[in-house]
Amino acid sequence: MTVQGDAIVRLSGVGKTFDNGAVALAGLTFDVAAGEFVSMLGPSGCGKSTALRIVAGLSEASTGDVERSGDSLGFVFQDPTLMPWATVAANVSLPFKLNAAHNTDLRSAVTRALVRVGLDDFTEAYPRQLSGGMRMRVSIARALVTEPPLLLMDEPFAALDEITRFKLNNELLTLWQEMRRTVIFVTHSVFESVFLSQRILVMTPRPGRVFADIEIPAAYPRDESFRTSAEFAGYCRRVSEALAQAMQVAP
Questions:
Q1: What gap in Å lies between CA 249 and CA 157, rounded to an integer?
Q2: Based on C-alpha coordinates, what's the Rg of the chain?
Q3: CA 182 from chain center: how many Å?
Q4: pLDDT 10s per residue in the chain (251 long)?
Q5: What is the rounded CA–CA span in Å between residue 113 and residue 144?
Q6: 236: part of which helix (H) or strand (E)?
Q7: Residue ranges of the domains in the chain?
Q8: How many Å apart are CA 236 and CA 246, to the nearest integer?
């Protein structure tokens, strides 16, 4: 269903019950406006990834309404899920091939996406030749190559070391500011959610629903000085308190 108004994504009373009877989501409701950077924050197993897959159309809601503007989106999974036998360029071009999309200048589109993630010198490299952070950059380039209006990211940096994670957080914000795509970012890190987001949706334990919708009005661009500021610490404290309260909510 196409969303009405300024929102690009709208979930209303969404529930998800799996075939084994497990209830992942119940009454999940939120809007995301075009161009926003919104994080979904909560403990493992609270239904964040399930909600993202429902937004993407990879899973169906059991109850409630899901509305999204447009058919085009990019999805970045927690694992880069690259084809090991294919070059970086071939991996990035995959969305065009899967959708049988006609692009008269595919090479330029792939190069443009790789330039955005700083890997234009690695077009002919193979995934095994790249570091973990570089493989994730390829995954992000693949999600961006068709220039979709909506980017869904499911804990993409969770498996990376802290230094690499900080660097990719910085690069992601730079990309977002340049392209102004809508981003829904799933994470279980308070610090990551505060650094990246305009809004944070704090989730309850399963069945997941929004416990708090917290605005982070800090100015962009955000850099290392923001990470070490009292302002950042204050937002982290507020979000941490909300998360602790959410964890006490009964199913």
A1: 28
A2: 18
A3: 9
A4: 445 458 999 999 999 999 999 999 999 999 999 999 999 999 888 999 999 999 999 999 999 999 999 888 999 999 999 999 999 999 999 988 776 555 557 888 999 999 999 999 999 999 999 999 999 999 999 999 999 999 999 999 998 999 999 999 999 999 999 999 999 999 999 999 999 999 999 999 999 999 999 999 999 999 999 999 999 999 999 999 999 999 998 77
A5: 6
A6: helix 230-246
A7: 1-73+149-251, 83-147
A8: 15
Residue 84 vs residues 69, 73, 156: alpha-carbon distances, Å: 33, 24, 18
Q: Look up residue 104 and give its amino acid.
A: T
Question: Residue 11 in contact with residue 66, Cβ under 8 Å?
Answer: yes
User: Does the domain made of 1-73+149-251 have the CATH classification 3.40.50.300?
Assistant: yes
- Its sign, for the CA torsion 145, 156, 240, 53, is positive
**Strand (E) or helix (H) holding 226:** helix 224-227
Q: What is the distance between the alpha carbons of residues 63 and 25, in angstroms, rounded to a whole number?
A: 9
Q: How many other C-beta atoms are found inside a 10 Å radius of the C-beta of residue 159?
A: 13
**Token pair in block for residue 41:** 């924050």
Q: Which tokens go with 87?
A: 């070059």
Q: How far is CA 154 from CA 3, 78, 190, 194, 235, in A?
A: 22, 5, 15, 16, 22
